[in-house]
Design a protein that fits this description.
Strand order of the largest sheet: 1-2
Structural class: mainly alpha
Shape: globular
Order of helices and strands: HHHEHEHHHH
Number of domains: 2
Bound molecules: heme C
Length: 187
C-alpha cells in the first residue's frame, strides 16, 4: 500500500513537472506576442511622432546607444514611443538648477515629466518584459543615449521647439483616441 502511494506521488510529480516545463516552453513565444499585442493595442501620443531623429551631432557613444535603441526598443512598439516621450531624467543637482532657471517647464507634466531615475526605471521595466532581448550592457547604452537625448531635445534652447512638438502630438492624440487620452491623462 505504501509502495503504491509512493509511486502514485512519484508519477504525479513527474507528470506535473513535465506539464509545467512543457507549458513554459509553449509560453515563451506566446507571452512575448501578448506583450507586443498589449503595446500596440494601447497607443500613446508618443507613437504619432517620428520614428527617428538626427543624431549627426551626437558623440560616437550616443550614436551607438541610438542604434541599439532603434533595434531593441522596436520589437513591440516603434521607436517613436521612447523618442517622443515626455520623460526627462535629471540628476538631483540638475533638477535644482533647472527649477531656478526654467520653473515654467515643471508646470506641464504631459510635456515634460521630470524625475530623477525615470528612464532607468522604464528601461528596466521594458527589459523585464517577455520577448525583450536586451542585456545589461545594451540596456546601459540605451539608457545613456535616452537620458542625454532627452536633455538635448527637451530643455535649454530646444525647450520651445519640444513643447510645440509634444503639444501637437497630444492634441492629435486626443482627437484620434479620446477614450485612451482620458484613461492616460484624466484619471
Ligand atoms: C517586449 C515588448 C516591449 C519592448 C521590447 C519594449 N517595450 Fe516599451 N512598452 C511595451 C508595452 C507593453 C508598453 C505599455 C506600458 C507597459 O506595459 O509598461 C510600453 C510602453 C513604453 C513607453 C511609454 C511609457 C509611458 O507611460 O509613457 C515607453 C517610453 C517605452 N515603452 C520605451 C521603451 C524602450 C526605451 C524600450 C527599449 C529599451 C522598449 N520600450 C522596449 C512593450 C515593450
Amino acid at each position: 500500500m505504501k509502495k503504491k502511494i509512493f509511486f502514485l506521488v512519484l508519477f504525479s510529480s513527474l507528470l506535473f513537472t513535465h506539464l509545467t516545463l512543457f507549458s513554459a516552453d509553449k509560453d515563451a513565444p506566446s507571452s512575448a506576442e501578448a506583450e507586443k499585442e498589449k503595446a500596440l493595442k494601447n497607443p500613446y501620443p508618443n507613437d504619432l511622432g517620428p520614428e527617428k531623429i538626427d543624431i549627426s551631432k551626437y558623440s560616437a557613444e550616443l550614436q551607438e546607444g541610438y542604434k541599439l535603441m532603434l533595434d531593441k526598443c522596436a520589437k513591440c512598439h516603434t521607436p517613436s514611443r521612447p523618442l517622443n516621450s515626455q520623460f526627462l531624467d535629471l540628476k538631483p543637482e540638475e533638477l535644482q538648477t533647472l527649477k531656478s532657471s526654467n520653473p515654467e517647464i515643471f508646470k506641464d507634466k504631459l510635456v515634460w515629466q521630470i524625475e530623477t531615475g525615470i528612464w532607468q526605471r522604464y528601461i528596466k521595466r521594458m527589459m523585464a518584459k517577455p520577448g525583450c532581448n536586451i542585456n545589461t550592457q545594451e540596456g546601459k547604452k540605451i539608457w545613456k543615449f535616452i537620458v542625454e537625448d532627452s536633455k538635448k531635445r527637451k530643455t535649454g534652447a530646444q525647450a520651445k521647439v519640444w513643447a510645440e512638438h509634444r503639444k501637437k502630438l497630444l492634441a492629435e492624440f486626443k482627437t484620434k483616441y479620446p477614450d485612451r487620452f482620458k484613461e492616460l491623462f484624466e484619471k
